[in-house]
Amino acid sequence: MEAFFMALWNLFSEMAPYLILGFFLAGVLHVWIPSSLYINKISKPTFMSAFWASVFGVPLPICSCGVIPTAIALRREGASKGASMAFMVSTPATGVDSILATYSLLGLPFAIIRPIAAFATSLLAGAVTNFATKSEKDIPLEMKDDDCCKVKPHGVKNKLYETFDYGFGEILGSVAKWLVVGLVLGALISAFVPDDLFIRFREYPLLCMIAVLIVAMPMYTCAMGSIPLAVALIEKGLTPGAAFVLLMAGPATSIASMTVVGKNFGKRALIAYLSSIAVGAIGFGLLIDYFWMNSFISAIPMMGKTMDIPQKGIVYTLSAVVLAVLFIRELIPWKIFKKSKSITKDEIMKTYNVIGMSCEHCKRSVENAVKEIPGVTKAEVSLHDKSVQVEGNASEELVRKAVEKTGFVFGGEKK
Protein backbone atom coordinates (compact mmCIF):
# COMPACT_ATOMS: atom_id res chain seq x y z
CA MET A 1 0.00 0.00 0.00
CA GLU A 2 2.93 2.33 0.55
CA ALA A 3 3.78 2.15 -3.14
CA PHE A 4 0.17 3.05 -4.01
CA PHE A 5 0.09 6.15 -1.81
CA MET A 6 3.49 7.26 -3.06
CA ALA A 7 2.28 7.06 -6.66
CA LEU A 8 -1.02 8.79 -5.81
CA TRP A 9 0.72 11.71 -4.09
CA ASN A 10 3.16 12.07 -6.95
CA LEU A 11 0.38 12.26 -9.55
CA PHE A 12 -1.84 14.57 -7.52
CA SER A 13 0.83 17.09 -6.48
CA GLU A 14 2.21 17.23 -10.02
CA MET A 15 -1.21 18.22 -11.40
CA ALA A 16 -2.42 20.50 -8.59
CA PRO A 17 -1.00 23.94 -9.60
CA TYR A 18 -2.06 23.47 -13.21
CA LEU A 19 -5.56 22.42 -12.18
CA ILE A 20 -6.01 25.45 -9.92
CA LEU A 21 -4.93 27.78 -12.72
CA GLY A 22 -7.21 25.95 -15.15
CA PHE A 23 -10.27 26.20 -12.88
CA PHE A 24 -9.69 29.94 -12.54
CA LEU A 25 -9.38 30.42 -16.30
CA ALA A 26 -12.55 28.37 -16.72
CA GLY A 27 -14.42 30.89 -14.60
CA VAL A 28 -13.00 33.79 -16.58
CA LEU A 29 -14.07 32.23 -19.89
CA HIS A 30 -17.56 31.50 -18.62
CA VAL A 31 -18.34 34.83 -16.94
CA TRP A 32 -16.47 37.49 -18.88
CA ILE A 33 -17.00 36.40 -22.51
CA PRO A 34 -20.58 37.16 -23.69
CA SER A 35 -22.40 34.59 -25.83
CA SER A 36 -23.37 37.32 -28.32
CA LEU A 37 -19.80 37.18 -29.62
CA TYR A 38 -20.23 33.68 -31.01
CA ILE A 39 -23.86 32.58 -31.50
CA ASN A 40 -24.27 34.44 -34.82
CA LYS A 41 -21.20 32.62 -36.17
CA ILE A 42 -22.56 29.09 -35.65
CA SER A 43 -26.15 29.34 -36.83
CA LYS A 44 -25.76 28.04 -40.41
CA PRO A 45 -25.13 24.43 -41.55
CA THR A 46 -21.78 25.34 -43.10
CA PHE A 47 -18.15 24.40 -42.60
CA MET A 48 -17.41 27.81 -41.06
CA SER A 49 -20.11 27.30 -38.43
CA ALA A 50 -18.42 24.04 -37.43
CA PHE A 51 -15.07 25.84 -37.47
CA TRP A 52 -16.20 28.55 -35.06
CA ALA A 53 -17.99 26.06 -32.81
CA SER A 54 -14.73 24.09 -32.60
CA VAL A 55 -12.76 27.24 -31.80
CA PHE A 56 -15.17 28.11 -28.99
CA GLY A 57 -15.26 24.56 -27.68
CA VAL A 58 -11.56 23.67 -27.42
CA PRO A 59 -10.66 25.89 -24.42
CA LEU A 60 -13.88 25.29 -22.47
CA PRO A 61 -13.38 22.81 -19.56
CA ILE A 62 -16.73 20.97 -19.73
CA CYS A 63 -17.04 17.19 -19.42
CA SER A 64 -18.89 14.90 -21.84
CA CYS A 65 -22.05 14.88 -19.74
CA GLY A 66 -21.80 18.56 -18.82
CA VAL A 67 -21.51 19.53 -22.48
CA ILE A 68 -24.91 17.97 -23.21
CA PRO A 69 -27.11 20.79 -21.82
CA THR A 70 -24.64 23.37 -23.16
CA ALA A 71 -24.84 21.95 -26.69
CA ILE A 72 -28.62 21.73 -26.49
CA ALA A 73 -28.76 25.33 -25.28
CA LEU A 74 -26.64 26.39 -28.26
CA ARG A 75 -28.96 24.45 -30.55
CA ARG A 76 -32.01 26.16 -29.04
CA GLU A 77 -30.36 29.55 -29.53
CA GLY A 78 -29.92 28.79 -33.22
CA ALA A 79 -26.74 26.75 -33.69
CA SER A 80 -26.79 24.32 -36.62
CA LYS A 81 -26.57 20.54 -36.14
CA GLY A 82 -23.05 20.46 -37.56
CA ALA A 83 -21.89 23.25 -35.28
CA SER A 84 -23.52 21.57 -32.28
CA MET A 85 -21.75 18.28 -33.04
CA ALA A 86 -18.43 20.07 -33.53
CA PHE A 87 -18.89 21.74 -30.15
CA MET A 88 -19.76 18.41 -28.49
CA VAL A 89 -16.57 16.82 -29.83
CA SER A 90 -14.09 19.64 -29.23
CA THR A 91 -15.26 20.72 -25.78
CA PRO A 92 -15.01 17.61 -23.54
CA ALA A 93 -11.81 16.28 -25.11
CA THR A 94 -9.84 19.37 -24.10
CA GLY A 95 -10.05 22.52 -22.01
CA VAL A 96 -7.70 25.05 -20.50
CA ASP A 97 -7.45 23.00 -17.32
CA SER A 98 -6.92 19.63 -19.03
CA ILE A 99 -4.33 21.05 -21.45
CA LEU A 100 -2.30 22.37 -18.52
CA ALA A 101 -2.73 19.08 -16.67
CA THR A 102 -1.69 17.15 -19.79
CA TYR A 103 1.50 19.21 -19.96
CA SER A 104 2.25 18.55 -16.29
CA LEU A 105 2.05 14.75 -16.57
CA LEU A 106 2.48 13.85 -20.25
CA GLY A 107 4.78 16.59 -21.50
CA LEU A 108 4.68 19.24 -24.20
CA PRO A 109 4.07 17.01 -27.28
CA PHE A 110 0.87 15.54 -25.78
CA ALA A 111 -0.24 19.00 -24.62
CA ILE A 112 0.19 20.35 -28.15
CA ILE A 113 -1.35 17.52 -30.15
CA ARG A 114 -4.35 17.00 -27.85
CA PRO A 115 -6.12 20.31 -28.70
CA ILE A 116 -5.00 20.03 -32.34
CA ALA A 117 -6.53 16.57 -32.64
CA ALA A 118 -9.70 17.68 -30.84
CA PHE A 119 -10.03 20.63 -33.18
CA ALA A 120 -9.45 18.57 -36.32
CA THR A 121 -11.82 15.82 -35.17
CA SER A 122 -14.53 18.34 -34.31
CA LEU A 123 -14.24 19.87 -37.78
CA LEU A 124 -14.65 16.38 -39.23
CA ALA A 125 -17.69 15.77 -37.03
CA GLY A 126 -19.27 19.05 -38.09
CA ALA A 127 -18.64 18.43 -41.79
CA VAL A 128 -19.86 14.82 -41.67
CA THR A 129 -22.97 15.85 -39.71
CA ASN A 130 -23.78 18.62 -42.21
CA PHE A 131 -23.43 16.13 -45.08
CA ALA A 132 -25.39 13.35 -43.35
CA THR A 133 -28.27 15.63 -42.36
CA LYS A 134 -28.41 17.91 -45.40
CA SER A 135 -31.73 16.36 -46.47
CA GLU A 136 -33.22 17.20 -43.07
CA LYS A 137 -34.61 20.60 -42.27
CA ASP A 138 -32.15 22.32 -39.95
CA ILE A 139 -34.73 23.80 -37.60
CA PRO A 140 -33.30 24.63 -34.15
CA LEU A 141 -34.90 23.07 -31.11
CA GLU A 142 -37.80 25.13 -29.87
CA MET A 143 -36.77 27.83 -27.43
CA LYS A 144 -39.57 29.75 -25.79
CA ASP A 145 -39.19 33.23 -24.34
CA ASP A 146 -39.69 32.79 -20.61
CA ASP A 147 -38.92 35.55 -18.14
CA CYS A 148 -38.26 33.04 -15.34
CA CYS A 149 -34.89 31.91 -16.67
CA LYS A 150 -33.33 35.03 -18.16
CA VAL A 151 -29.85 35.80 -16.91
CA LYS A 152 -29.77 39.03 -14.93
CA PRO A 153 -26.97 41.58 -15.43
CA HIS A 154 -24.17 41.54 -12.86
CA GLY A 155 -21.76 44.15 -11.57
CA VAL A 156 -18.00 43.64 -11.35
CA LYS A 157 -18.21 42.38 -7.77
CA ASN A 158 -20.84 39.78 -8.64
CA LYS A 159 -18.94 38.76 -11.77
CA LEU A 160 -15.81 38.16 -9.74
CA TYR A 161 -17.79 36.06 -7.30
CA GLU A 162 -19.36 34.16 -10.21
CA THR A 163 -15.92 33.57 -11.74
CA PHE A 164 -14.67 31.75 -8.66
CA ASP A 165 -18.02 30.08 -7.98
CA TYR A 166 -18.13 28.66 -11.51
CA GLY A 167 -14.47 27.68 -11.76
CA PHE A 168 -13.96 26.31 -8.25
CA GLY A 169 -17.58 25.32 -7.70
CA GLU A 170 -19.43 24.13 -10.77
CA ILE A 171 -16.49 23.03 -12.92
CA LEU A 172 -14.44 21.57 -10.08
CA GLY A 173 -17.52 19.82 -8.75
CA SER A 174 -18.31 18.34 -12.16
CA VAL A 175 -14.88 16.71 -12.53
CA ALA A 176 -13.78 16.11 -8.93
CA LYS A 177 -15.21 12.60 -8.58
CA TRP A 178 -13.96 11.46 -11.98
CA LEU A 179 -10.56 13.03 -11.48
CA VAL A 180 -10.15 11.19 -8.19
CA VAL A 181 -11.19 7.95 -9.89
CA GLY A 182 -8.61 8.54 -12.62
CA LEU A 183 -5.89 9.33 -10.07
CA VAL A 184 -6.67 6.22 -8.02
CA LEU A 185 -6.73 3.98 -11.11
CA GLY A 186 -3.49 5.50 -12.33
CA ALA A 187 -1.80 4.98 -8.95
CA LEU A 188 -3.08 1.38 -8.73
CA ILE A 189 -1.74 0.60 -12.17
CA SER A 190 1.60 2.22 -11.40
CA ALA A 191 1.97 0.36 -8.12
CA PHE A 192 0.67 -3.12 -8.93
CA VAL A 193 0.57 -3.80 -12.69
CA PRO A 194 3.72 -5.58 -13.98
CA ASP A 195 5.98 -3.30 -15.99
CA ASP A 196 6.03 -5.55 -19.06
CA LEU A 197 2.28 -6.25 -19.28
CA PHE A 198 1.64 -4.21 -22.43
CA ILE A 199 4.98 -4.71 -24.13
CA ARG A 200 3.60 -7.54 -26.28
CA PHE A 201 0.92 -5.25 -27.76
CA ARG A 202 3.47 -2.86 -29.22
CA GLU A 203 3.68 -5.08 -32.29
CA TYR A 204 -0.05 -4.57 -33.03
CA PRO A 205 -0.69 -0.83 -32.47
CA LEU A 206 -3.87 -0.63 -34.57
CA LEU A 207 -5.46 -3.62 -32.83
CA CYS A 208 -4.52 -2.14 -29.48
CA MET A 209 -6.09 1.22 -30.41
CA ILE A 210 -9.33 -0.40 -31.54
CA ALA A 211 -9.54 -2.30 -28.24
CA VAL A 212 -8.96 0.91 -26.27
CA LEU A 213 -11.57 2.71 -28.40
CA ILE A 214 -14.22 0.02 -27.77
CA VAL A 215 -13.63 0.22 -24.03
CA ALA A 216 -13.31 4.01 -23.82
CA MET A 217 -16.32 5.12 -25.88
CA PRO A 218 -19.20 3.87 -23.70
CA MET A 219 -17.62 4.59 -20.31
CA TYR A 220 -17.31 8.09 -18.89
CA THR A 221 -13.79 9.45 -18.39
CA CYS A 222 -13.31 13.17 -17.87
CA ALA A 223 -10.58 15.03 -19.76
CA MET A 224 -8.43 15.36 -16.65
CA GLY A 225 -9.23 12.03 -15.04
CA SER A 226 -7.99 10.23 -18.16
CA ILE A 227 -4.53 11.81 -17.90
CA PRO A 228 -3.09 9.90 -14.90
CA LEU A 229 -4.66 6.73 -16.28
CA ALA A 230 -2.90 7.26 -19.62
CA VAL A 231 0.42 7.95 -17.86
CA ALA A 232 0.19 4.74 -15.86
CA LEU A 233 -0.72 2.67 -18.94
CA ILE A 234 2.19 4.09 -20.94
CA GLU A 235 4.55 3.22 -18.09
CA LYS A 236 3.30 -0.37 -18.29
CA GLY A 237 4.02 -0.65 -22.00
CA LEU A 238 0.97 0.79 -23.78
CA THR A 239 2.02 2.78 -26.84
CA PRO A 240 1.62 6.58 -26.71
CA GLY A 241 -0.76 6.39 -29.69
CA ALA A 242 -3.07 3.94 -27.92
CA ALA A 243 -2.96 6.09 -24.79
CA PHE A 244 -3.90 9.06 -26.96
CA VAL A 245 -6.98 7.19 -28.17
CA LEU A 246 -8.03 6.96 -24.51
CA LEU A 247 -7.42 10.70 -24.04
CA MET A 248 -9.57 11.51 -27.07
CA ALA A 249 -12.41 8.98 -27.03
CA GLY A 250 -12.91 8.67 -23.27
CA PRO A 251 -13.80 12.32 -22.55
CA ALA A 252 -15.59 12.91 -25.87
CA THR A 253 -18.17 10.14 -25.52
CA SER A 254 -20.28 8.36 -22.94
CA ILE A 255 -23.52 6.42 -22.86
CA ALA A 256 -25.29 9.58 -21.70
CA SER A 257 -23.97 11.71 -24.56
CA MET A 258 -24.81 9.02 -27.14
CA THR A 259 -28.38 8.80 -25.87
CA VAL A 260 -28.96 12.55 -25.88
CA VAL A 261 -27.38 13.06 -29.30
CA GLY A 262 -29.58 10.35 -30.81
CA LYS A 263 -32.72 11.78 -29.24
CA ASN A 264 -32.16 15.50 -29.84
CA PHE A 265 -30.17 15.51 -33.07
CA GLY A 266 -31.20 12.28 -34.80
CA LYS A 267 -29.59 8.96 -35.70
CA ARG A 268 -27.60 10.37 -38.60
CA ALA A 269 -26.01 12.97 -36.36
CA LEU A 270 -25.25 10.27 -33.78
CA ILE A 271 -23.48 8.09 -36.36
CA ALA A 272 -21.51 11.12 -37.62
CA TYR A 273 -20.60 12.00 -34.04
CA LEU A 274 -19.26 8.52 -33.13
CA SER A 275 -17.55 7.75 -36.45
CA SER A 276 -15.74 11.10 -36.47
CA ILE A 277 -14.37 10.55 -32.98
CA ALA A 278 -13.23 7.02 -33.86
CA VAL A 279 -11.49 8.13 -37.07
CA GLY A 280 -9.89 11.16 -35.43
CA ALA A 281 -8.64 9.32 -32.34
CA ILE A 282 -7.18 6.34 -34.22
CA GLY A 283 -5.80 8.52 -37.01
CA PHE A 284 -3.81 10.73 -34.66
CA GLY A 285 -2.87 7.70 -32.56
CA LEU A 286 -1.30 6.04 -35.60
CA LEU A 287 0.59 9.22 -36.48
CA ILE A 288 2.04 9.33 -32.98
CA ASP A 289 3.09 5.68 -32.95
CA TYR A 290 4.53 5.52 -36.45
CA PHE A 291 6.34 8.87 -36.58
CA TRP A 292 6.80 10.32 -33.08
CA MET A 293 6.71 7.45 -30.58
CA ASN A 294 10.20 7.97 -29.17
CA SER A 295 9.76 11.75 -28.99
CA PHE A 296 6.50 11.42 -27.08
CA ILE A 297 7.87 8.85 -24.63
CA SER A 298 11.05 10.81 -23.90
CA ALA A 299 9.05 14.00 -23.23
CA ILE A 300 6.81 12.47 -20.55
CA PRO A 301 7.99 13.91 -17.21
CA MET A 302 6.59 11.01 -15.17
CA MET A 303 8.24 8.19 -17.11
CA GLY A 304 10.32 6.14 -14.72
CA LYS A 305 9.54 8.41 -11.77
CA THR A 306 6.01 7.45 -10.73
CA MET A 307 7.18 5.34 -7.81
CA ASP A 308 9.47 8.01 -6.39
CA ILE A 309 8.32 11.00 -4.38
CA PRO A 310 10.14 14.01 -5.83
CA GLN A 311 11.07 16.91 -3.62
CA LYS A 312 8.21 19.25 -4.44
CA GLY A 313 8.51 22.99 -4.04
CA ILE A 314 6.23 25.02 -1.81
CA VAL A 315 3.97 25.90 -4.78
CA TYR A 316 3.26 22.25 -5.58
CA THR A 317 2.73 21.33 -1.93
CA LEU A 318 0.40 24.24 -1.15
CA SER A 319 -1.48 23.70 -4.41
CA ALA A 320 -2.00 20.04 -3.55
CA VAL A 321 -3.28 20.93 -0.06
CA VAL A 322 -5.66 23.62 -1.37
CA LEU A 323 -6.96 21.35 -4.12
CA ALA A 324 -7.46 18.49 -1.66
CA VAL A 325 -9.56 20.78 0.56
CA LEU A 326 -11.66 21.85 -2.42
CA PHE A 327 -12.17 18.22 -3.44
CA ILE A 328 -13.23 17.25 0.08
CA ARG A 329 -15.70 20.15 0.13
CA GLU A 330 -17.27 18.92 -3.11
CA LEU A 331 -17.21 15.17 -2.52
CA ILE A 332 -18.36 14.86 1.10
CA PRO A 333 -22.14 15.32 1.59
CA TRP A 334 -21.92 17.90 4.36
CA LYS A 335 -25.70 18.14 4.47
CA ILE A 336 -25.86 14.91 6.47
CA PHE A 337 -24.39 16.83 9.40
CA LYS A 338 -27.04 19.54 9.25
CA LYS A 339 -30.46 19.44 10.85
CA SER A 340 -33.30 19.47 8.38
CA LYS A 341 -35.35 22.64 8.27
CA SER A 342 -39.00 22.41 9.25
CA ILE A 343 -41.49 23.71 6.74
CA THR A 344 -43.97 26.33 7.90
CA LYS A 345 -47.61 26.32 6.90
CA ASP A 346 -47.01 29.21 4.49
CA GLU A 347 -44.29 27.37 2.58
CA ILE A 348 -44.82 24.85 -0.22
CA MET A 349 -42.23 22.19 -1.05
CA LYS A 350 -42.58 19.92 -4.06
CA THR A 351 -40.24 17.47 -5.73
CA TYR A 352 -40.12 17.03 -9.50
CA ASN A 353 -38.42 14.37 -11.63
CA VAL A 354 -35.68 15.59 -13.98
CA ILE A 355 -34.40 13.09 -16.56
CA GLY A 356 -30.86 13.23 -17.93
CA MET A 357 -28.84 14.72 -15.07
CA SER A 358 -25.58 12.94 -14.29
CA CYS A 359 -22.98 15.35 -12.88
CA GLU A 360 -22.38 18.50 -10.84
CA HIS A 361 -22.61 20.67 -13.92
CA CYS A 362 -26.08 19.28 -14.62
CA LYS A 363 -27.06 19.82 -10.98
CA ARG A 364 -26.04 23.46 -10.88
CA SER A 365 -27.61 24.22 -14.26
CA VAL A 366 -31.03 23.02 -13.10
CA GLU A 367 -30.76 24.62 -9.66
CA ASN A 368 -29.76 28.01 -11.07
CA ALA A 369 -32.58 27.95 -13.64
CA VAL A 370 -35.25 27.02 -11.08
CA LYS A 371 -33.98 29.58 -8.55
CA GLU A 372 -34.65 32.34 -11.10
CA ILE A 373 -38.39 31.56 -11.06
CA PRO A 374 -40.32 34.28 -9.22
CA GLY A 375 -41.58 32.92 -5.90
CA VAL A 376 -38.97 30.19 -5.53
CA THR A 377 -37.05 30.50 -2.27
CA LYS A 378 -34.95 27.35 -2.61
CA ALA A 379 -34.11 24.74 -5.25
CA GLU A 380 -32.07 21.64 -4.52
CA VAL A 381 -31.19 18.88 -7.00
CA SER A 382 -30.61 15.25 -6.04
CA LEU A 383 -28.50 13.46 -8.63
CA HIS A 384 -29.20 10.15 -6.90
CA ASP A 385 -32.98 10.49 -7.23
CA LYS A 386 -32.82 12.49 -10.50
CA SER A 387 -35.08 15.14 -9.02
CA VAL A 388 -35.26 18.79 -7.99
CA GLN A 389 -36.88 19.86 -4.72
CA VAL A 390 -38.51 23.27 -5.04
CA GLU A 391 -39.52 25.43 -2.10
CA GLY A 392 -41.79 28.39 -2.69
CA ASN A 393 -44.92 29.28 -4.65
CA ALA A 394 -43.94 28.45 -8.24
CA SER A 395 -46.33 26.59 -10.51
CA GLU A 396 -45.40 23.24 -12.05
CA GLU A 397 -45.56 24.80 -15.51
CA LEU A 398 -42.89 27.39 -14.64
CA VAL A 399 -40.67 24.68 -13.18
CA ARG A 400 -41.14 22.60 -16.33
CA LYS A 401 -40.13 25.51 -18.56
CA ALA A 402 -37.06 26.24 -16.45
CA VAL A 403 -35.92 22.60 -16.49
CA GLU A 404 -36.48 22.13 -20.21
CA LYS A 405 -34.60 25.32 -21.00
CA THR A 406 -31.48 23.76 -19.48
CA GLY A 407 -31.79 20.83 -21.91
CA PHE A 408 -33.18 18.16 -19.59
CA VAL A 409 -36.49 16.31 -19.62
CA PHE A 410 -39.11 17.32 -17.05
CA GLY A 411 -40.75 14.25 -15.53
CA GLY A 412 -43.55 15.84 -13.53
CA GLU A 413 -44.11 15.88 -9.78
CA LYS A 414 -42.55 13.03 -7.84
CA LYS A 415 -45.21 10.96 -6.12
Brief write-up:
With 415 residues, this protein is of the alpha+beta class.
Structure description:
By secondary structure, the chain is of the alpha+beta class. The chain folds into two domains: 2-319, no CATH class; 338-413, Alpha-Beta Plaits. The chain is built from 16 helices and four strands. A four-stranded antiparallel sheet has the order 2-3-1-4, with helices on one face. β2 (376-382) and β3 (387-392) form a beta hairpin. α1 packs across α14 (314-331), α4 (81-93) packs across α10 and α7 crosses α14. The longest helix has 37 residues, at 156-192. The radius of gyration is 22 Å and the shape is globular. It starts with a helix and ends with a strand.
Low-confidence stretches: 141-153, 306-311
Distance between the termini: 47 Å
Instruction: Give a short account of the largest sheet.
Output: 4 strands, antiparallel
Quantity of strands, as a count: 4
**Nearest-integer average pLDDT:** 79
Keywords:
415 residues, alpha+beta, Alpha-Beta Plaits, 4-stranded antiparallel sheet
Per-chain topology:
Layout (H helix, E strand, L loop, with lengths): L1 H31 L14 H11 L9 H11 L3 H13 L2 H11 L1 H25 L23 H37 L12 H12 L9 H10 L4 H13 L2 H11 L1 H25 L1 H7 L14 H18 L17 E7 L4 H12 L4 E7 L4 E6 L3 H10 L3 E5 L2
Antiparallel strand pairs: 1-3, 1-4, 2-3
Helix pairs in contact: 1-5, 1-7, 1-14, 2-4, 2-6, 3-4, 4-6, 4-10, 5-6, 6-12, 7-9, 7-14, 7-15, 8-10, 8-12, 9-10, 10-12, 11-12
